[in-house]
Specification:
alpha+beta; globular; 211 residues; Glutathione S-transferase Yfyf (Class Pi), Chain A, domain 2; single chain; 4-stranded mixed beta sheet; 9 helices
């Protein structure tokens, strides 16, 4: 049985959501953050060498990293659903946005979060924070062309991208009122029954910032 080790308010939301979208059986094991440090508890950090969320267990396998887990679960349990194959329409777009989420968007959001807390160095910080502006601008432009990041069809690229658009803003607040396409996209996502089930299971009582 697949086990999703879920750390509250973390990127492991993605994996719970993926399992609900695929309609596959899984066991959810929840862990709460340390109330003082807001870090993962020692038991969670011990699951993998790097010690970060998300993590899954499957038999003797313990696997970390969002993109690796999504590919593994989608292939192993979902028969490739939510992954766009080579040669299919939107394949290159899917690859780009699937990897953009953690390759560019999340690092830019983390830099922005750190810059919010550091005094001085305004010039350098402005240049660094501009990366996040570019990420939002690029996503806004893309969603002005198509309903989902890979094109007309919802895919794992959307699952990867939602965290930095929503939960990450809890840690580093950002006004998204200038981005109407992103706001409409978040409402489309929020209407998905699998997404609603996942959020109720992963972070009950948490109001995800969708606007």
């Amino acid at each position: 049985m697949l086990t999703v080790h879920h750390l509250g308010l973390s990127q492991s939301d993605r994996i719970v959501w993926l399992c609900e979208e695929l309609g596959i059986p899984y066991t959810l094991k929840r862990y709460e953050r340390d109330p003082q440090t807001r870090m993962a508890p020692a038991a969670y950090q011990a699951l993998t060498p790097f010690g970060t969320a998300p993590v899954i267990g499957d038999g003797d396998l313990m696997l970390g990293e969002s993109a690796a887990i999504i590919e593994y679960v989608a292939e192993t349990y979902g028969h490739g659903r939510l992954l766009i194959r080579h040669g299919a329409p939107g394949y290159a777009d899917f690859l780009y946005w699937f990897h953009f989420a953690n390759g560019s968007f999340m690092p830019a959001a983390l830099i922005d979060s750190i810059c919010n807390r550091l005094p001085g160095g305004a010039g350098a910080m402005t240049a660094l924070r501009a990366r996040l502006d570019r990420a939002y601008d690029q996503i806004e432009a893309r969603l002005g062309e198509v309903p989902f990041l890979a094109g007309e069809t919802f895919s794992a690229a959307d699952i990867m991208t939602l965290f930095p658009l929503t939960t990450m803003r809890v840690f580093s607040p950002r006004d998204i009122s200038p981005y109407p396409q992103i706001r409409a996209y978040l409402q489309r996502i929020a209407a998905r029954p699998a997404f609603q089930r996942a959020m109720q299971k992963a972070d009950p009582g948490f109001s995800l910032p969708l606007s």
